Each structure stands twice: as structure tokens, then as C-alpha cells.
Amino acid sequence: MKLLLLAIAPVFIIILYIYLKDKYEKEPKRLLLYTFLLGAIVSIIISTILYVFSSYILPLPDNYSVWQQFIKAFFVVALIEEFSKYVIVRYFAQTRDAFNEPFDGIVYAVMVSMGFAAVENIMYVTTGGVNVALVRAFTAVPAHATFAILMGYFMGKAKFSNNRIKLNLIGLSLAILFHGAYDFFLFINFVPGIWIGAFVSLIIGIILSHRAIKKHQDRSHFKI
After folding, report:
1. Which parts pass through the membrane (predicted)?
2. Which terminus of the chain, N or C, has less C-beta within 10 A?
């Protein structure tokens, strides 16, 4: 029970933080719950299927080179996981009447991502223990939130734009870019000190996420 609480605590802290940042019109709690559960169930299922499929079309050897780690980080892990979240935001949340202001893109993207992160974190923490829980609480879980905010920022703009497809894909691409960069520096840990790049990319993502939140708060109720 202790490990379970440690695994889910950072997820719900982030959810509460984003919920409170939605200053003008709170989203229906039931819809938020559904979005979270879709992230926890459907996105995980989609990711699992795509991982199995990718292992057949893009098999990688046991000893990865730097280039192969790059492919794995950006075109396997980041692409699959962010696409699985994007699908839920695009075809479930973005079509709802409650999605009626730009900030809602951030809210729903974070809910999906935190659903995904909750399941992933439980799997890692229950096998890795308290130390893994503490490390991931300040790294992997905030990273998932950061990717979601960057994607949700553009998907929030897309809802009220004539360039919906373009803006949606920009959001997806940005999430893949930051997710891929974060993972890549961790994957090539055989290069001494290179892991610092993961934290640099995370810090940059957090700074951009803070700006994205502020911009959508300022533009709330404006169709952009």
C-alpha cells in the first residue's frame, strides 16, 4: 500500500496543480475522470500493441549503438507513447462541448498523460521500491506532465482555429521531440555524464510549460 501511494501521489499532485490553474471555467469532474481512465487503460493498450508491432518492423539488437538508441528514443518510445495519448485528446476530449477554451487543451492532455503515467509508475515502483518512487516523482512523472502541457497548448489553440490539423500535429510533434530528447540522454548512459542532458531537456520543457499555462490563462475565453 505504501508503494502504491508513493507511485500515485505525484500524479495527483500534478492533476490538482493543473486543475487549480484552470481559473475561469472548471471542467466537469466526471469528464476529467473518464479522460484519466482512458489514459490509464486505452493509451496503455494502444502503446502495447504498437510496441509489439514496432518490434517486428523495426527490430533492434541487444547492444544498441548511439544511433540505434536515438531511433528507439524518438521513433519508438516517444512516438508510440505520445501518439497513444494524442489519440484520446484528439478524438475524445477535443470533440466535447466542455472543451470550450484554449486552456482546456492543457487540462485534458494532462489528464490523459497522468492516467498513462500512473499505470507506468505503479509498474516501476512496485518492482523498484521506495528509491525508484522518489526518483520518478521528480523526473519521469513531471516529464510526462511537461510533454502533455506542450501538446495540450497547441491542441487548445487548434480547437478554435481554422488550422486545426496543423496545430494538433505541432502539439504532437513537440511532445515527441521533448519526450525523445529526455529518453535519448537516459538511454545512452554508457556515455559518462550524458544523462545530464535529460535533466536539461526537462528543465527547458518545464520553463516552456509554465509559459504555455500562463498564455492560455491570459487568453482564456478568447477563440484563437
Report:
1. 5-20, 32-53, 73-93, 105-127, 133-155, 167-188, 194-213
2. N
